[in-house]
Amino acid sequence: MNILQINSSARSTGAFSTQLANVLAEKLLASHAGSTLVLRDLAINPHPTLDEAALVALMTATEARSLEQATSVARSDTLIAELQAADTLIIAAPMYNFGITAQLKNWIDAITRAGVTFKYGANGPEGLLTDKQAYVVLTRGGVHRDTANDTIADYMRTILNFLGISKVEFIYAEGLNMGDEMQSKGISQARSEIELAVA
Ligand SMILES: Cc1cc2nc3c(=O)[nH]c(=O)nc-3n(C[C@H](O)[C@H](O)[C@H](O)COP(=O)(O)O)c2cc1C
């Protein structure tokens, strides 16, 4: 098992999503001898926004790119290579303002590349990242599971499926900002879901 763990909290320390993703990674490593783990922490190493310069760099032919453009493309090439090399993906995904964090969105914008991780064919879009299992660890201050407010699970499933990753499991840690009791309940619930996912 080659695991890629993406931490996307803005917090480089103390993030519940990171802690729970770590627990999941440790359990997967322990239960699959010889497994490897690559960690990409977007709080420590944030990926830049897909702005106009980054888009132009991508659309410029390789041999015509300036050094700055080549560096920009190489940064996302690295993220894509990490993903291609993994068969198991753990994404730690906190809720910020009812959406994913900007850090996670920037990572998604970097790894979603036409002709590389997906392509359009006669039958529509085709994901090129096949044979991978994804686990998405959802952390939130409130409780939103299975409500209209929870667009993150649908979005993450949609984008992962689009890229060819059809096996997606969610682990929920909710109510984390609703007092100590709710917080412990939310963490215990997530830990139980991790046990189930690993089993
Ligand atoms: C900028 C910001 C926005 C947030 N927005 C929401 C929100 O819309 N809904 C919610 O339930 N919790 C929200 N929270 C609470 C976080 O989801 C919660 O603190 C969670 O633990 C963050 O994940 P982390 O511990 O992995 O950093 C927000 C927190 C921050 C810092």
UniProtKB/TrEMBL annotation:
Domain of life: Bacteria
Alphabetical list of Pfam families matching this protein: Flavodoxin_2
Cofactor details (free text): Binds 1 FMN per subunit.
Keywords: Flavoprotein, FMN, NAD, Oxidoreductase
Binding sites annotated in the UniProt record for FMN: 9, 95-98, 139-142
Keyword Amino-acid biosynthesis attributed: no
Cofactor entry: FMN
EC number of the protein: 1.6.5.-, 1.7.1.17
Catalysed reactions, as listed in the record: 2 a quinone + NADH + H(+) = 2 a 1,4-benzosemiquinone + NAD(+); N,N-dimethyl-1,4-phenylenediamine + anthranilate + 2 NAD(+) = 2-(4-dimethylaminophenyl)diazenylbenzoate + 2 NADH + 2 H(+)
All copies of domain Flavodoxin-like fold, residue ranges: 1-195
Gene Ontology MF annotations: electron transfer activity; FMN binding; oxidoreductase activity, acting on NAD(P)H as acceptor; oxidoreductase activity, acting on NAD(P)H, quinone or similar compound as acceptor
Subunit text: Homodimer.
Family annotation (HAMAP family): Azoreductase_type1 (MF_01216)
Family from the record: Belongs to the azoreductase type 1 family.
Function: Also exhibits azoreductase activity. Catalyzes the reductive cleavage of the azo bond in aromatic azo compounds to the corresponding amines. Quinone reductase that provides resistance to thiol-specific stress caused by electrophilic quinones.
PANTHER family found in the cross-reference section: FMN-DEPENDENT NADH-AZOREDUCTASE 1, FMN-DEPENDENT NADH:QUINONE OXIDOREDUCTASE
Protein name: FMN dependent NADH:quinone oxidoreductase
Organism this protein belongs to: Iodobacter ciconiae
